Inverse folding.
């Protein structure tokens, strides 16, 4: 339902504390947030208030353009309109089946009053729990081929705040430990960046629908004033587009609690609806594979005596998957190109040729007979043009073999991809350009892979990816990705992932979308260093770190040693009809309850950082008309991530929605619960 | 049920990071908290761990004594025993009907190894949500008359923390705005002092069972090291007692959330059981009265044309109370002594003689006929010995008139009471000593009034009192008190109570016990300054600020102007069978649900500081088998404490325990809900 023509009462906004003259404004449906647009000596800005108090101070809008004057001065407001929207839509898979999209939209058109008289539109969508805005560049004589030198969008946070962030524009992509600093000590951050004001307000800055545009980093200009810093193209500019086009949405999720940020659906709502139609061919599922052994360095990706991707090893994983109800099996290192120095040197990869010791056809047939599906693997080593050249045949091969999920990889040197457009230098050598993993060129590449895969009913799971901006709504075969320090850093990271790591992820990286974190290392053992969690926390991660495909990555023999804990991994689904954040603080702890999409069972995960906690959890999310058996997997009385990580108890209790559970989490611990309705 | 003889495994504690040698230890029933006792070169200390991580670093135990050597050095542990205790007891009235008292007790006896060879006992009671410890002085030849010069008990908080506190040892007793500072910037604080570590752990330092002893202030020695600073007696020492005796319990409530602190029953549990027997003669209730008009300065306590306590005015309040189901009527200024400068000059008060314009007997009879009970009033002006001389006859008079609750008052100069033991100077003048409002002498005075009143079935409500340390468990006629900035500061305070005030109170002052805050100023109007809340928040305070007697203090004509809001005040009870803190942060916001002790109705109060908030509140506390009508009193869409405090909506919704309410609180706002089961 869309109601057009809601009149915005500018008079009410005149005293809203904006810089210059307030020329437009809009308020969220529940009168929580409002945005004001002002013009000050020809320069445009926006500001945000919550319950009448300023949250974002007047912040500039505009662009520096190449080969023409900047689009920032001599502006006047020439048109504005407001509307409201309220719709509930259904996800094919996800944390929630139904999502409400309820906002007030404000469209404002600015035009230059002199010279080129160019114009652009800014569209604001104001929700009770956040807002997004984007620029729209209409087709116009003075602005056809647009080269964005810099986007000038600002975000000025009013209240003193603390930030959780990773550095943007660094060599190791998104694979950094989260920093917690005063907001005014951030240098340049990736998004999502989550902040908490001293008043307890939680804000996450991010973007939605990053299509054919450069990623936004947040560069601090001064104090708590941030500017959109776009990832540069190899040509030096940031973005090149032909009008008409839109930028991604710049987003601010704003909530009283950390959980409120997580429960916001702003990012998905700002993306376009499903463009693929029926995607029921994608099956959320768990998968095993030949992977962790390479991170332990007991197997190798390269061929030779330690080669992991042998026919025999793959069949062993297929047997394991079949026995335990896991749909998929990933085999890394199955193809030609891994011998020698492949890291950042991916031009030797052949995406259609298996190594001699890996019978791809035979393994695929064996899997089929066992009811298991191979998960494909395309590591590019950053040689992206090289990969694109083979993309069609590579996808066709997998499609023929029944592979319907592919894990791609971009372990590129310095976080930059190799781009080769066929251009040759004067001396006849190929021109190889370096593109940021999150620049405009890579944003195109990823969507190319996703759309080509979709044609073949294949889902994509990129590692070392571009960040998630909610495009899974439009392309539901872009099912998950990495894009943060995953479990392999527990194996060999220096430092390894600390106990707080996943509690940072939930309220930062996970606000972007699903992550293929690969939890479930029940051995708690990396490469000469322990995993810094308790056993129970490994189980909880299956609920806490959402992904529609979840790996079961530990060595088969390690699951055999923990039959009691492994039962939870066998039971836990990867597709949900409802998700509730029951409590949590950024970087400290969280408890999440999710309902299985395919049954009446509920699952709960709770995890903490290096501090033990006692949390009262009312079970109100359960169906009040049912009784449940709670299968509880918890830390033992003396459990501690450092001194007693294997202290572990499994027990059952009969519970109902009226009960309150006391959840005791050891230092670095967790708890996982399956609630099964009593027939 | 008591299980004696739990063996404490000292070996396990050896590496617990205590100073010196760990000689004893105990762990809470749920293995959450543990305490270790150590001796280091003859000096004793304790430390506290939570989930194996240090919370309180080694902190000294001991005393400086007058006329003898200090009791702190050359100590050895000569005896220890441990036991566990688990019992549920019933309150005659309160926030909860049943309270569980489940702890591990550790008793350690220290003795001097040389010279006087004195000994003392320290008893620790370790709960999952806190601990208390006290000193026991056995009768012994070298320690009979004990004069405590200083208590040397320390509290060394490990993690960097923020504190909410009011200054201890200042002239205006407890009537200060709460300060929020880094813990290492506290100077000297009253208890309860609440702190939150940077890791999110919440700790409240306080004391329990303050009987015949001086109150403890917390003086910061250095960094985050605090020492018990006892309120001094006029003689210069702090406490004088004869052995055997016990000190009050030094308490630490420790919880992951602010709500966890509030839900802790540590303070009540550490007090002795009910010493009065059947106290069903005390009736929790609301009361109206002649009071707010004096704070508005439209009436006076003194006689004359503006005298508030006239027969006619009292009868008007009695009529109002009778019409609206309020049990009590308070009439301040009814007795002789208010003319002239009574502030800190209370020797003119006569507690049995009414002013000529107030027919006490007639008013009492009128009230009886209307089914209303007068609430007595004894203002001392700080002349405490003077009051004690009249105490018997004053109580007898009230008992004869059917007065069963008395509000006492101690508006003393410089926070100190006048004490006159009958001693005269060499020149024949009376010797008047000045005693701290919270010193040992006043602790005796308050208990004398309470026990004398109990004999006559009268309950006591002291204003400008000694702090609450849970003695209502032992003396259930000590029903409430002031002991913080109440609503009168909204009338004339400079500055007035800010929007955050009550949110500070809930997690500091209210951890001590009930407060006669006198909410419900629906006019939102003080003496030339507005009350800094919305209308809805005034209603919420009846749920948020617990007291078994609650005033309905605004002018009668103001309630007539707000008939819709007044309905909630008429409905809300003052005695509860259950209390649940649904969410909250110290100084920011809180939501509390309480169940009426005398019906199946539930009440919810939610309030916020100067920041508006949206809070999701699952109604899990409701009976899952019932449906309810929720009578919702909330802030209107444009409400704001400063600009639109009267924006207010009353609405009804049918709800059940499976529902989740979205509670929208305006800046400085609140919400009150009554849940009535549908028949």
């Amino acid at each position: 339902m869309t109601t057009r023509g809601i009149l915005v009462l500018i008079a009410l906004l005149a005293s809203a504390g904006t810089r210059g003259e307030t020329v437009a404004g809009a308020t969220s449906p529940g009168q929580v947030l409002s945005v004001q647009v002002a013009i000050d000596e020809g320069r445009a800005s926006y500001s945000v208030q919550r319950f009448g108090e300023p949250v974002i101070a007047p912040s500039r809008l505009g662009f520096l353009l190449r080969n023409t004057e900047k689009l920032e001065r001599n502006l006047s407001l020439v048109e504005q309109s407001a509307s409201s929207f309220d719709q509930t839509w259904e996800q094919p898979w996800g944390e929630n089946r139904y999502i409400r999209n309820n906002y007030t939209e404000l469209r404002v058109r600015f035009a230059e009053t002199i010279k080129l008289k160019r114009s652009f539109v800014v569209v604001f969508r104001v929700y009770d729990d956040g807002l997004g805005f984007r620029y729209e560049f209409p087709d116009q004589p003075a602005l056809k081929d647009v080269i964005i030198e810099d986007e000038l969008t600002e975000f000025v946070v009013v209240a003193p705040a603390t930030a959780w962030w990773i550095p943007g524009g660094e060599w190791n992509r998104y694979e950094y430990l989260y920093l917690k600093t005063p907001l005014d000590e951030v240098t340049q951050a990736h998004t999502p960046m989550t902040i908490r004001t001293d008043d307890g307000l939680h804000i996450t800055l991010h973007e939605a629908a990053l299509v054919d545009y450069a990623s936004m980093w947040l560069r601090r200009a001064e104090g708590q004033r941030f500017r959109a810093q776009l990832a540069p193209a190899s040509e030096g500019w940031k973005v090149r587009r032909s009008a008409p086009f839109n930028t991604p949405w710049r987003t601010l999720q704003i909530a009283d609690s950390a959980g409120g940020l997580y429960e916001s659906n702003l990012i998905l709502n700002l993306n376009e609806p499903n463009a693929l139609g029926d995607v029921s061919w994608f099956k959320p599922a768990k998968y095993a594979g030949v992977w962790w052994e390479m991170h332990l360095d007991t197997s190798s990706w390269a061929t030779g005596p330690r080669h992991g991707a042998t026919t025999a090893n793959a069949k062993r994983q297929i047997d394991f998957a079949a026995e335990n109800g896991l749909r998929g099996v990933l085999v890394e290192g199955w193809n030609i190109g891994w011998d020698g120095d492949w890291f950042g040197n991916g031009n030797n990869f052949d995406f259609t040729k298996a190594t001699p010791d890996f019978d791809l056809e035979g393994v695929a047939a064996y899997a089929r007979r066992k009811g298991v599906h191979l998960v494909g693997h395309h590591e590019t080593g950053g040689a992206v043009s090289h990969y694109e050249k083979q993309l069609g045949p590579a996808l066709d091969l997998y499609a023929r073999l029944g592979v319907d999920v592919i894990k791609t990889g971009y372990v590129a040197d310095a976080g930059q991809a190799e781009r080769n457009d066929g251009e040759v230098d004067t001396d006849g050598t190929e021109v190889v350009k370096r593109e940021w993993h999150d620049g405009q060129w890579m944003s195109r590449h990823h969507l190319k892979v996703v759309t080509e895969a979709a044609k073949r009913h294949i889902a994509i799971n990129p590692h070392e990816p571009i960040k998630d901006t909610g495009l899974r709504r439009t392309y539901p075969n872009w099912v998950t990705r990495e894009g943060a320090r995953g479990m392999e850093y527990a194996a060999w990271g220096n430092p390894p992932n600390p106990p707080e790591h996943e509690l940072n992820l939930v309220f930062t990286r996970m606000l972007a979308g699903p992550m293929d974190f690969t939890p479930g290392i029940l051995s708690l053992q990396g490469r000469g260093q322990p995993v810094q969690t308790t056993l129970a926390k490994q189980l909880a991660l299956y609920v806490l770190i959402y992904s529609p495909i979840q790996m079961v990555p530990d060595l088969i023999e390690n699951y055999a040693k923990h039959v009691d804990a492994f039962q939870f991994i066998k039971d836990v689904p990867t597709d949900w009809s409802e998700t509730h954040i029951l409590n949590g603080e950024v970087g400290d702890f969280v408890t999440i309850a999710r309902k299985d999409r395919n049954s009446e069972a509920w699952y709960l995960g709770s995890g903490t950082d290096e501090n033990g906690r006692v949390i009262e959890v009312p079970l109100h999310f359960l169906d009040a008309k049912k009784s449940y058996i709670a299968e509880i997997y918890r830390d033992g009385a003396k459990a501690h991530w450092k001194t007693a990580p294997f202290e572990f108890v499994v027990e059952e209790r009969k519970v109902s929605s009226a009960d309150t559970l006391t959840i005791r989490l050891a230092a670095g611990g967790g708890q996982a619960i399956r609630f099964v309705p009593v027939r």
Notes: Residues 1-18 of chain A have pLDDT under 50 and may be disordered. Residues 276 and 479 of chain A are 13 Å apart (CA to CA). Chain A touches chain B through 47 residues (CB under 8 Å).
